[in-house]
Design brief:
The relative contact order is 0.12. This protein has strands spanning about 1-5, 10, 20-25, 30-35, 45, 55, 65, 75-80, 85-90, 105, 110-115, 120-125, 130. It contains no helices and 13 strands.
């Protein structure tokens, strides 16, 4: 069942039972998760509102964690031995911005705040170009 912010049911979808967790829909996709041993090596994918996997479990196995989609992009944490690096993926599961960041926020109104090893903290647009930050 999909419920809006007024707690009204707006649609009912059939979700396959093979997932350990299903997250809320954001940008028309819901993150699904299969737990690994002791919550490590979890596997992620995304389903649409019909329950169809649009990014299949297994495609995102190079990531330690995967965020939900905002403005068409999701933040993912790369698996690394000592330090985390973050990238953005698109709705096909491909890396959308070539750069890796030490910190990465979600996109809102086409911009996200990031922290880069050499350039510090700043905002980027959906192409990875520096952009003025949104006023909150």
């Amino acid at each position: 069942m999909y419920i809006n912010n007024k707690f009204e049911t707006i649609s009912t979808i059939k979700i396959p039972k093979e997932y350990d967790s299903i997250y809320r829909f954001s940008d028309d996709l819901a993150k699904v998760e299969l737990y690994g041993k002791e919550y490590e090596n979890n596997r992620y994918g995304f389903i649409d509102k019909t329950g169809k996997e649009v990014i299949p479990i297994g495609k995102l196995d190079d990531y330690r964690s995967v965020g939900c989609f905002y403005d068409g992009l999701a933040v993912c944490e790369l698996i690394g031995p000592d330090i985390s690096r973050y990238v953005y993926i698109d709705k096909t599961g491909n890396q959308a911005i070539d750069e890796m960041y030490e910190e990465a926020g979600v996109f809102s109104n086409g911009k996200a705040k990031v922290k880069h090893k050499r350039f510090g903290t700043f905002c980027i647009d959906k192409n990875g170009n520096p952009a003025p930050c949104n006023k909150d």
